[in-house]
Each structure stands twice: as structure tokens, then as C-alpha cells.
């Protein structure tokens, strides 16, 4: 296996543009500008790969052919309705099929590179559209690129794939698509569905018949900070991955759990997000011979958060992590200013936060995070042969 890292990127990925909408492609543009200025994309062993549009045979492993036809037809019909399209969340836009299929193709290319041994890790930060359903757009997502890539890995011979979703919203589309497939473990940490879209992701969602225990959900109360998030992540994710023994790790790395994100209510920092990326890389190294496919996802603090968070992700995937104290390059700050986005430009790659945490223990007076951890462990750990009360599991 090559030790290279594939970064799938082309400016054509910015065509997934819903107009005056929270999911602004400028966040991806600014991410690559920042990563480039920091030298991350010029590291030895980094291979930039241009994506190609996923064809229908790849997309229909996940999506209904009638849905693909609707996505193609919708921009030509100003009165189009149905399939979740034409809503405020999922407005119809010109070239919708082509741009959505290109994002899916980019994540598929990342997955193929890792599975075939052309690279140890691969990243598509434009991807992570995890809410799309087989026949319905949802939550800003038209085609579910992580699910399409996982289906492609299964077709290539993978027998155990772990999907870990750290977006603030539940990874409902990927969970639903592989609900009955014991070859795919879906793990999602997210703000409680009692408070946030899409209203799913409770601990008792554990997988369909024959696949029980392969859906793992860790809902967290509003306001959770880095220490609570890291405590929950490490109380759940390493144990279930070790029990499942995946051959490849696929991650959705939405940055919308940050305290500045306008669409959610968690209190994370870029320092905590960086720590999560390091933890996922370590798990891929331990369990999957390093095979790690990472995507972006949500994130609506377009300047203040997403470019820094995903530049940290790119750095972690391509080699040495960026020192949090690093200054953002003047050239990048000038670019942001030239775009007249009306946002405060961060001066450093840190929020000056300490992402350390106290490991979970089943004793003591539980707080809201510990109660959530206990609920998830009690529900799903026995299905995976783990002891919910043993902190070593």
C-alpha cells in the first residue's frame, strides 16, 4: 500500500451552489485557499486528483433511478415539486444533477484510491452530504456521496466498513441506507434530535434484523463543549470500532458543532475538532492499516470556522498536524477581505481552547453527558458483545 494521501479537488466542485443559502460553496473555496497557503497541499506524498461525475450505475447502488430522473428534470421545470426538491432547504438549481454527481464521484474516487492501495488516506472536503435518502433530497443534500462511496467499497470486496459521523446533525441518510446491512457500522455523534434536525439518532436506533448493533447513536445535549464531546467520543467510538474490526474507516467531518455555527447549539472549538480528527486517524491506523476516507459535511460559519477546521483535517490526513498557534497567512486574510463576506477573519488556527477531557467512568454523580453516554452504551454495547459498565470496553 502506498503511504500517499489523495486529496480530491477541482474548482468545478464549487458548482454545488444553492444560491442564497446556508450551504455556501465559499467555505470550500476558502478551505483550499487556506490549506494551500499553509503548505498542506504541497507536502511530499500528497496527490491531487481531479474528480469525475459518478455515472448512473454508481449512483443507483444507493439512489432510485426515478429520483435521478427527477433531479435531472427539476431545473427545467419552474413548478417542479416532489422528491424533497424545490424546498427552502433543497432549492432547485441549474446543473443540480451534474454538480451533485461530481461530489459523489469525488468521494468514490477517494474510496477507490484507499481500497486499491493507491493511497493510505483520501479526503474530499466538498463531500459529506449525509442526509440524502434513496429517493429524496434532504437537509441540503441531493445525492448521498458517503453512502455511494461505501456501496462502491462493498462492490470492490470490502466486508466490514465503519462510518463515523461527527457532524452536529445525525447522519440519518447513511444510517437508513445501510440499516439492514451487517457489513456497515454507522456511528453518529450529534446534538440531540429533540432539539435539532433531522429528529432521528436516538440510542435505540441500532440497526435492522440481522444487523442489530451496526447503527450506533450518541446524541448529546445542547451546549456540550470540547471536554464533554471528547468524553463521549472516546467512551463510544473506539470500543464499537474495535468490536466491529473494520477494514476501512469512512468519516463525515461536519464542522457545524462549533460554538459559532448559526444552525446548531453545541459549544465546540476548532481545537476540539482537530483533536477529533487526530483520534479518527489513530483509530484508522490501529484497526484499518491506516485506510481512512474523510469527507466534509455541514458547517455554516463560512469564514470563522470551516476553513480552519478543514485545513486541520487536511493536515491530519496528509501528515503532521498544524500547530494550533499558527497564524493564518496574510494572503488568505486578504482573499477573505476581498470577498467582502462581512465576517471576522480569524488570525490564528486556534480558538485558544484546551480539548482535554476526563475519561468516562460508570461511577460518580452523572451529568447530562454521562447520562447520554450511559444510555448509548446500555442500548448498543451488548449487541456488539461489549460490557456497557466496563470502562475498558
What does this structure look like?
This protein is α/β, with parallel strands linked by helices. The chain has one domain (5-384): Histone deacetylase domain (Arginase, Chain A), CATH 3.40.800.20. It has helices spanning 26-37, 56-59, 65-73, 96-115, 145-155, 172-177, 226-244, 270-287, 306-318, 330-338, 368-380; strands at 5-8, 46-49, 121-124, 161-165, 184-191, 215-220, 248-252, 292-295. An eight-stranded parallel beta sheet has the order 2-1-3-8-7-4-5-6, with helices on both faces. Strand 7 (248-252), helix 8 and strand 8 form a beta-alpha-beta unit. The longest helix is centred in the first third of the chain and has 20 residues, at 96-115. The radius of gyration is 19 Å and the shape is globular. It starts with a strand and ends in a 13-residue tail after the last helix. 53% of the residues are buried. This is Acetoin utilization protein AcuC. It holds the Pfam family Hist_deacetyl. Belongs to the histone deacetylase family. Pathway: Ketone degradation; acetoin degradation. InterPro entries: AcuC, HDACs, His_deacetylse_dom, His_deacetylse_dom_sf, Ureohydrolase_dom_sf.
Question: Separation of termini?
Answer: 31 Å
Question: Strands of the biggest beta sheet: in what spatial order?
Answer: 2-1-3-8-7-4-5-6
Task: Kindly give the count of domains.
Answer: 1
What is the third-level CATH name, the topology?
Arginase, Chain A
H/E element sequence: EHEHHHEHEHEEHEHEHHH
The number of distinct helices, counting runs of at least 4 residues, comes to 11
Shape: globular
> How would you classify the helix and strand content by structural class?
alpha/beta
Percent strand equals: 5-15%
What is Rg? 19 Å
- What is the CATH top level name? Alpha Beta
Helix content: 25-40%
User: Quick one: how many beta strands?
Assistant: 8
CATH architecture: 3-Layer(aba) Sandwich
Amino acid at each position: 500500500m502506498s503511504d500517499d494521501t489523495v486529496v480530491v479537488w477541482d474548482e468545478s466542485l464549487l458548482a454545488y451552489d444553492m444560491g442564497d443559502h446556508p450551504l455556501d460553496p465559499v467555505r470550500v473555496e476558502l478551505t483550499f485557499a487556506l490549506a494551500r497557503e499553509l503548505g498542506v497541499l504541497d507536502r511530499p506524498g500528497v496527490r491531487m486528483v481531479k474528480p469525475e461525475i459518478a455515472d448512473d450505475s454508481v449512483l443507483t447502488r444507493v439512489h432510485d433511478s426515478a429520483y435521478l430522473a427527477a433531479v435531472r428534470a427539476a431545473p427545467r421545470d419552474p413548478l417542479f415539486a416532489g422528491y424533497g426538491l424545490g424546498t427552502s432547504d433543497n432549492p432547485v438549481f441549474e446543473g443540480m444533477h451534474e454538480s451533485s454527481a461530481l461530489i459523489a464521484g469525488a468521494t468514490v474516487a477517494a474510496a477507490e484510491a484507499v481500497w486499491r492501495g493507491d493511497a493510505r488516506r483520501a479526503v474530499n472536503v466538498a463531500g459529506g452530504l449525509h442526509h440524502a435518502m434513496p429517493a429524496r433530497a434532504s437537509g441540503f443534500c441531493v445525492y448521498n456521496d458517503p453512502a455511494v462511496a461505501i456501496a462502491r467499497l462493498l462492490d470492490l470486496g470490502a466486508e466490514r466498513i465503519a462510518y463515523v459521523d461527527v457532524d452536529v446533525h445525525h447522519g440519518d441518510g447513511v444510517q437508513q441506507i445501510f440499516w439492514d446491512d451487517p457489513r456497515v457500522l454507522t456511528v453518529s455523534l450529534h446534538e440531540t434530535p429533540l432539539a435539532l434536525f433531522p429528529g432521528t439518532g436516538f440510542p435505540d436506533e441500532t440497526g435492522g434484523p440481522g444487523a442489530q448493533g451496526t447503527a450506533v447513536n450518541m446524541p448529546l445535549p445542547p451546549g456540550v463543549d470540547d471536554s464533554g464531546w471528547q468524553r463521549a467520543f472516546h467512551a463510544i467510538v473506539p470500543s464499537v470500532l474495535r468490536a466491529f474490526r473494520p477494514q476501512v474507516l469512512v468519516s463525515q467531518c461536519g464542522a457545524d458543532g462549533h460554538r459559532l455555527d448559526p444552525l446548531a447549539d453545541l459549544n465546540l472549538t476548532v481545537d476540539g475538532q482537530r483533536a477529533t480528527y487526530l483520534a479518527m486517524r489513530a483509530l484508522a491506523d490501529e484497526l484499518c492499516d491506516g485506510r481512512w476516507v474523510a469527507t466534509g459535511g455541514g458547517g455554516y460559519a463560512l469564514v470563522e470556522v470551516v476553513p480552519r477546521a478543514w485545513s486541520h483535517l487536511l493536515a491530519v490526513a496528509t501528515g503532521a498536524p498544524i500547530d494550533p498557534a499558527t497564524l493564518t497567512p496574510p494572503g488568505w486574510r486578504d482573499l477573505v477581505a476581498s470577498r467582502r463576506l462581512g465576517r471576522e477573519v480569524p488570525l490564528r488556527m486556534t480558538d485558544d481552547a484546551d480539548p482535554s477531557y476526563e475519561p468516562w467512568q460508570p461511577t460518580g454523580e452523572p451529568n447530562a453527558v454521562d447520562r447520554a453516554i450511559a444510555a448509548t452504551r446500555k442500548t448498543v454495547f451488548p449487541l456488539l458483545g461489549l460490557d456497557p459498565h466496563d470502562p475498558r470496553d
